[in-house]
Amino acid sequence: MEAGNQLVPTAPIRSASEPILCTRVDSSGSGSGRWKRVVVVGGGISGSIVAKYLQFHADVVLIDQKEYFEIPWATMRTTVEPAIADKAVINHADYLVNGNLVVASAVGVTETEVVTSDGGRVGYDYLVVATGHSYSSPANLKMRSSSSVLIIGGGPSGVELASDIASNYPEKKVTLVHSGSRLLGFIGCKAGNKALEWLRSKNVDVLLEQTIDLNSLPDSNGIYITSAGEAIAADVHFVCVNNPLGSKWLQESVLSDRLDKRGQLMVDEHLRVKGRSNIFAVGDIVDIHERKQGILAQRHAAIVAKNLKAMLKGELAGKEGKEVKLGKYKPSVAIAMVSLGKKDAVAQLPFTTMSGFLPGLIKTREVFLRKTRKLLSV
C-alpha cells in the first residue's frame, strides 16, 4: 500500500490489505494486542488533536498535504512579525510520535479505504474527516517591500491583517474593501463599529458595500477597480474571503449523499457522519450550526477522540457489536475576539462587547500560540 506516498517514518505502515497487528507498549515496556486502524484526513488543528490523542490507542495514520500545519489564527500576524512565524508552524512529526503520516491529498473514500492523490490506498477501520477550510499564508516579503496594500474582506482575518500592517508600517497606504455594510458581520454591530473606528483612526481606507472581481487581475499600473467604479492603486493584495471548504474530494465518494448543499458533512450528536457507525467528522466541515472557530474545532476533536477511545476499548475487551456509550457534542457560542494591532482588540462576549487594551492583553500576546502548542505538547 501507499507505494509512492511520502511517509514521515514515525512507525512502519503496512499495506491496506495486510492484517493490522500492532504491539501496545505499556508502562513496563511490554504487552500486546490487535489494534484497529484510525485514519485521519486533514492535519489542521482538529485533525492533529485527534491523531495525537489516539496514537497510543490505535494504528493511527494521518493524511495531510504537508508535513506541518500552520496555526490559522496566527498566519496574518506572521505577515508583519516574521519572528513568530516559526511558532505558528507545527511539524506533524513533533507530536505524532507513534503514528504515521502520509503526505498527499485525499481524493476519494470507499467503504474501506481512502484514496490519495498519488494513487495510494489507505485502509481504515475508523475514519475521521477533518478537511475544513483551506487557508493561505500572506506573502510577507512582498508586503514589506510595498508602499500600498489592498485587503479584500472585512471579516476577522481581513481586519486583523489591516490592523497589523497599519500598526507596524504606518507609512504604508492600506485599503480594505468589504462587501458588507459593516465589518465583522459574524458578530454584533457594536464590535464591527469599534473595529471600523479603530482602523480609520490608523488611516486605513475602508470601503464598505463594494467588491473586487477576484477573477480579474489589476492592470499594469497595479490599479484595482471596485464594483462601485473606484480605482485603488496597490502594490500587493491579500484575499481574506471565500476560503474554500475542503469537501470537494468527497463529492464522488461513498459520503457524497452525506454532504449538505453547502458541502458540509452532516453529523449526529456524537459527531459521526449520519448513517455511518465508523466515520466521524470534525472542524469546519461539519454541518453544526455554530461559528467556524478554532476553539470549537478543538472541542470537536476532544469529543471524537474520547468516543473513538471508548469504541476501541470496547472492541479490545471483546464487546464488538455491543452498544458503547458515546459522548455528545453540544453546539456552543465561543467568545469572538479580533485583535487590532499589537495592543488592542475587540471582543464579543455573551452579554457585552469590549474593545481596547483589556481584550488585547488576552488576544494579541502571541495570538494564543503558546496555548495551542501546549495542547499538542510541542
TrEMBL record:
InterPro entries assigned: FAD/NAD-bd_sf (IPR036188), FAD/NAD-binding_dom (IPR023753)
Protein keywords: FAD, Flavoprotein, Oxidoreductase
Keyword Protease: no
One example GO MF annotation: flavin adenine dinucleotide binding
Residues annotated as domain FAD/NAD(P)-binding: 36-135, 147-302
GO cellular component assignments: cytoplasm
Pfam family, one: Pyr_redox_2
Family per similarity comment: Belongs to the FAD-dependent oxidoreductase family.
Function: Putative FAD-dependent oxidoreductase.
Name of protein: FAD/NAD(P)-binding domain-containing protein
